[in-house]
Amino acid sequence: MATTKEFLAEILDRLSGLDGVTHRAMMGEYILYYNGKIVGGIYDNRLLVKPVKAVISCLPDAPYEFPYDGAKPMLRVTKTDDAALLQKLLRAMYDELPAEEKAIRSEKHAHHRTFCTQSRAGACTSATCCARCWHG
């Protein structure tokens, strides 16, 4: 069962007191970001967050659940109607989270920006274009 847009809207409304909360749709579910860092997601109308120390101390009885088959377990936030709690969780866990994903990916794929000069009109115009480029 995919997450409903109504449930997403409820969670985002309760997090609206925080600047920097964004989301991204992914296969019928939603990844949640706080100031560019992934904090968790909404899966099958369940709010799941990363199990960092700050969250574990705020929600000591929270059950671990899998967002989807093959994923790492996350903590389920069952009190989704408590806006103050949700905002407190995101603030508390922020410093424990790894750097934002975009920066990591950008460095990993820097060779695409360096060598590839694919034009919209045709083939790559670079003699040094690497074989890993999407058009190669």
Please give a quick description of this structure.
The chain contains five helices and six strands, in the order H-E-E-E-E-H-E-E-H-H-H.
Distance between the termini: 38 Å
Shape: globular
Quote the average pLDDT: 82
Biggest sheet descriptor: 6 strands, antiparallel
Global structural class: alpha+beta
Unreliable stretches (pLDDT < 50, length at least 5) are 110-121, 131-136
Query: How would you spell out the order of helices and strands?
Result: HEEEEHEEHHH
Number of strands: 6
Helical percent range? 25-40%
| Beta content | 15-25%
**What Rg do the Cα atoms give?**
19 Å
Instruction: Give the count of helical stretches.
Output: 5
Query: Which strand order do you get reading across the main beta sheet?
Result: 1-2-3-4-6-5
Q: Would you write up a description of this structure?
A:
There is one protein chain. With 136 residues, the chain is of the alpha+beta class. It is 30% helix and 21% strand. It is built from five helices and six strands. A hairpin with a 2-residue loop joins strand 3 (37-43) and strand 4 (46-49). The longest helix is centred in the middle third of the chain and has 11 residues, at 83-93. The two termini are 38 Å apart.
Note the topology:
Elements: H1 5-14, E1 21-26, E2 29-34, E3 37-43, E4 46-49, H2 53-58, E5 64-65, E6 74-77, H3 83-93, H4 101-108, H5 110-115
Antiparallel strand pairs: 1-2, 2-3, 3-4, 4-6, 5-6
